[in-house]
Amino acid sequence: MIKTIAPVNIALIKYWGKASLDPVLPSTPSISVALKDFYTVTEVDQSETFSFHLNEKPVSQEVLKKTEAFVRLFQPEGPLKLAIKSTNYVPTAAGLASSASGFAALSLALHHFYGRSLNDYVALTAKGSGSAVRSLEGGAVMWHLDGSIERLNIDLSAYQMAVIMIDTSPKKIPSREAMAMVQSSPDYQGWLVRNKARALKLKDALTHHDIKTWGLLMEESTLDMHALGAIAAAPFVYLKEATLLLWQALIEARKNGLEAYATADAGPNLKIIFNRKNREAITHFLNRHPFSYVITDFTDQGARLWSK
Ligand code: 2P0
Prior knowledge:
Bound molecules: ligand 2P0
Number of strands: 14
CATH architecture: 2-Layer Sandwich
Mean pLDDT: 94
C-alpha cells in the first residue's frame, strides 16, 4: 500500500489557458503558495477490481471514468486492479475541494506504485490537473511555460491566508472548459503578455519580502483572469456580488492602513493574504461580514509519502 499527502495551492499569478493539451502546457507561467491546513491524503492498494472512494464514499461513474483514464497514463495495458481511497482535509465549514491537491497526491502515489521516472510524473500530473503540478512542491512554486516546476526561495512563515466562504455550491463551469472558452476572448493575446510579465515581476518581488507588490500583482492577475471570461464569446462570471462587496471593503480598509490583498479562483470564494502581525485586524475586519472563514499558515512541504 502506498499513502501520500499533498497540499492545496492558491495561485498568486493565475494559470488560465493552455499552450498545448498534450503535453499539458500553460500559456503563461503561474506562481502559487501551498496551504498548511488544506490537503488531500490518498491511499493506493492492490485489489481485485478498480475502485475509488473519495471522503469514504464511492465516486460517481463520471469521476471513476476520469480517474481510470488518469491511472491508464501510468499503466497503459492490462486490467486495472487498484483501490484508491482519497480524503480531502479542509477545516470545518471551509468546503474548499481541490483537484490540485487530489491529483498531486494521487500522482505521487501512482508514481511510487508503478515506479516511473520523476520527469514523467510531473508531466503526467499535469494531465490530471495543470495546477496540481504546483502542489508537488511546498512553499512558493512557479510553473513554467516548458512544464517544469521551480520552488522559489522564499520564507512564507511571516504570512497567512484567510479563506472566506461566500458560496460553496459546486462551480458551474469546470476550469478546463473555462480555459478553452477564454481563448476566444478578444484580449487573450494581451492576457498572455501581461500575465507573463506579472509572473516575472512577482518572482522578483517574492525574494524581497515586498507584500505590497505581491498583493497588487495577485489582485491584477485575478481580476484580469475573471475579465477574460466576462468578455469571451460566450461570457461567464464566477464572482458573486458578495465577493465584490467584500473585496471593495478590503480595498477601503487598505486605504486605512490594513495591509491585505485578495484573490478568487474559479468560483466566488475570496482568499486574503496578509502578514501574520495583522491577524487580529483581519479577524476584526472579517467578523463584520456574515461569511465563515478559516485562517491558515502556508507550508514548506509539497506532495510526499505519508509518515506519522
Ligand atoms: C490557478 N485555476 O492558477 C487557476 C486559477 C483556477 C483559477 O488552475 O484544465 O483544474 O485541469 O489543467 O488545474 C484550475 O485549473 O485545470 C486552475 P486543468 P485546473 O490555480
